[in-house]
TrEMBL record:
Similarity comment text for this entry: Belongs to the MoaE family.
Protein's pathway: Cofactor biosynthesis; molybdopterin biosynthesis
Catalytic activity: 2 [molybdopterin-synthase sulfur-carrier protein]-C-terminal-Gly-aminoethanethioate + cyclic pyranopterin phosphate + H2O = molybdopterin + 2 [molybdopterin-synthase sulfur-carrier protein]-C-terminal Gly-Gly + 2 H(+)
UniProt organism field: Streptosporangium carneum
Tree of life domain: Bacteria
Transmembrane domains' residue ranges: none
Protein name, entry field: Molybdopterin synthase catalytic subunit 1
């Protein structure tokens, strides 16, 4: 079975249960799940909502990032999903998950996966602040 079990960029709500189910593996002794949510402030400025946009090539870049993580770590399963469109406070924006025989590798691979997704996959965040101003952020948080 392929180590990369679920990759998606979608405009509908994300499910932790879906991601956890996708990476289930009897060879795994450690599973990590990172859930990124919309927070109510950024750099001390009140945020009211966000909107994410993705480049048409973002899915291919997400696959490239996932393949690199899968090649660099002894993992049994990996998943990553990111939301696009309008999100409200508390909504889930991104979920990454990794299963591995041992917890250290699961934590390290999960950290690399979210960091590389944020840094390399062309998904942009438009923050809408309480004062009506907006800010584009070059990579997702």
């Amino acid at each position: 079975m392929d180590v990369i079990r679920l990759l998606d960029i979608r405009d509908s709500a994300l499910s932790v249960d879906e991601v956890f189910s996708a990476i289930g593996d009897h060879a795994a002794g450690g599973t990590t799940i990172f859930v990124g949510t919309v927070r109510d402030q950024d750099h001390g400025k009140p945020v009211t909502r966000l909107s994410y946009s993705a480049h048409p090539g973002a899915a291919g870049e997400l696959r490239r990032v996932a393949e690199k993580v899968a090649a660099d770590f002894p993992i049994t399963a990996l998943a990553a999903v990111h939301r696009v469109g309008d999100l409200e406070l508390g909504d889930i924006a991104v979920i990454v998950a990794v299963a591995s025989p041992h917890r250290d590798e699961a934590f390290a691979a999960s950290r690399r996966l979210i960091d590389d997704l944020k840094g390399e996959v062309p998904i942009w965040k438009n923050q809408i602040f309480a004062d009506g101003s907006t800010e584009w952020v070059g990579a997702c948080d």
